[in-house]
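Troubleshooting log. The previous run stalled partway through. Resubmitting the same two chains, unchanged.
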Amino acid sequence: MRILVLFAHPAIERSEVNRPLAEATARIEGVSLVDLYAEYPDLRIDIDREQERLQSHDVIVFMHPLYWYSTPAILKEWQDLVLEYGFAYGEGGTALAGKIFFNAITAGGAEAAYCAQGYNQFTLRQLLYPIEQTARLCGMTYLAPFALYSSRTAYEEGRIEAHIADWQRVLSALRHERLDIETARGLEKLNGDLDAILKDSDR
Amino acid sequence: MSGLLFQAFVYLVAAVVAVPVAKRLGLGSVLGYLIAGIVIGPALGLVGSETHEIQHFAEFGVVMMLFIVGLELEPQALWRMRSRLVGFGGLQVLLTTAVITAGGLLLQLRWPTALAVGLILALSSTAIVLQTLNEKGLASTEGGRTGFAILLFQDIAVIPMLALIPLLALPELAASHLADAGSEGSHAAMSLVDGLPPSQYALVVLGAIAFVVLAGHFLSRPLFRFISAARLREIFTATALLLIIGIALLMTLVDLSPALGTFLAGVVLANSEFRHELESDIEPFKGLLLGLFFITVGAGIDFGFLFGNAATVVGLTLAVMAAKALVLFALARLFGLQAPDGWMVTLGLAQAGEFGFVLLSFSLQNGVLPDELVKTLSLVVAMSMLLTPVSFIVLEKLIRPRLRGAAAADADDIDEQGTVVIAGIGRFGQIVNRLLVADGVRTVVLDHEAEIIDTVRQAGIKTYFGDASRPDLLHAAGIESASVFVVAIDDQKRAVEMVEHVHRHYPGVKILARAFDINHLYLLKNAGCDVAVREVFDGSLRIGAEALRALGVHPFRVEKMVDAFRRHDLEGLRHLYELWDRDRAISENRAFLARAKEHGETLRERMISDRMQQHDRTERGWTPPPKGYVDALSE
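Second attempt completed without errors. Output:
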């Protein structure tokens, strides 16, 4: 399967996790990485180009840090512009039907903060409901987010390399259709227990 | 007259034939000149004993080279390299002298003779090494800078050596040479300091140096401003030459090395706005004189004597180079140089130098060395210089590739990276420069209006005087190490020429240019410009947008219209290019005008129509679904 990673980070020069993650992504064969802020520094998104990209891939990923429980602005702009009536939804809007969609997110808060008892009150998956519903309305299969919590201290604690290795495993499994899609749809996060969703040879 | 022309002809033919061939074969220009010299001298006999005189004259190339080196070295940079200069350079001269002196003693020389030989051979060839480093782009690597520091120290060390060597005279030789010295007119024939006691001599020397520094600092600017106002290029060149020759003369009068004096003057002028202009004016003279110097070294090799004493000369040459390389290698280790840089210094500076010739004849005159030994050593010096290009080839072909694997991670540390050269610092260039400098980018700004330079200098923008359409000046401004070249001048024709030149000779440099109108923009693109921007386009569009806002159009809608307009216009530029004809004015190009009109009409259409619901096409992205769509969804 062909994978499209739409990457959004407005201050890449300060990024500790997303930059190495994006660089690792760019090196994987069969994966297209689009740095949205580099391509549209003035936020003027080329709708036709983006729609062509969507049509030539089977898996769509939003890769970004979590900003106010959502995506950085350019990804919202991207949704508003690219997911047109008649293309992504509505009459004749079936261009995205059957594709797989998920978020690859870094979150500053600790995992424990993302629950009813924590200060964030909702789980990450709950906070992403608007995106999940957008994917659903476009007929896409939504998977649990691939997430790194406590990302502000990941560098100091040496957790980045393992995270990148997990990411590479996920992409490779998706690419060769060895990821258990059914299980992945129901999880809280994709990288909770990779062995459970990767089939045979990727374990 | 015809004799002179014939000689000039022979030298020039030799250089013109040999140097390009040598460069093509990867041997470097220095070896090319040396071979040219051997061919016209000992091999064909076209030139004879006069080469010795010419060599003296050509040594002036070294003086000019040090002036240029000084120009490229700001005083702060000189201060930063003080430990390498004194530490590495000083130890190199001391240890090499000691090792070679010891070798001389082993060969049964008497100690004063051995010491003189040690001093003479401790020097390396500034001319060959700097020329080669520049040619191979190694000058600003760590090894290149260390090599330069050593050479500079050696140039300074020549001064005490000139004082020390006469003290080593052997009584029996001195007696026999005394007569010659009187008749020939010795080294000190023109000297202000002959016979002065040491304390007064020191005073005179310090005075001369102070004069050079102070005059360079305070007098040079008004002088160059006055000269440049005359707008006569050759007079500027004449002034530059006058400056160098004047300083060289002053230094000779006080028994200092002319090379050192002009180097100092170069350093003083390194911060001047005329720096690049001076550099590009002197550069051709320097190049030709150095070339001539190398030719005379080749031509001066006495093959009769060489074949007679082949074993001795070759053996001594190899021994001297081995000894020098050994000392350099050990010091490179001691000073913690990385392996590639260490090898560059070791192999690059292992030869004896042009000052060796000077000191050898000086020693002969002063009865320090016997005739036979001077002849042998002259050959050793020449041979070692001849071998230097070879050792650089060994370095490049054999040693560097092998080290590359080990030190792949730390590439050569080249300090002039990512610079931007800006031609023209009028209203346009100033804004470009301000943006770049604010982001910490190193820019080199050139302009040929002395008044503008004065104004912007007061605003703190460092600008160099010079006509940026001159290739040599661009070269002096460092165009080959620049990443980006910005053409911000208002002379359309010269802008196109500049783009053409830089595109052809420096394909790695990205070229951005200011275009006057569409026609000029196409001309620039044709010339190889990467990005050309019409100078009034953005400003005009901005005023149009402000007018719409003043009419009460919603500001965000205005921005969307501006964006649509810009895209539409760029599309038009691309379409119309096919019909553009550089030899026909646009106003006479019917097909072009027709297509332009046609394209212009689509703009209105673009802004008004929408592919589905007569929405403004600029709002395509924010178009809501049709009314009643939700009813269908909940069924």
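Takeaways: Residues 537-621 of chain B form one domain. The mean pLDDT of chain B is 81.
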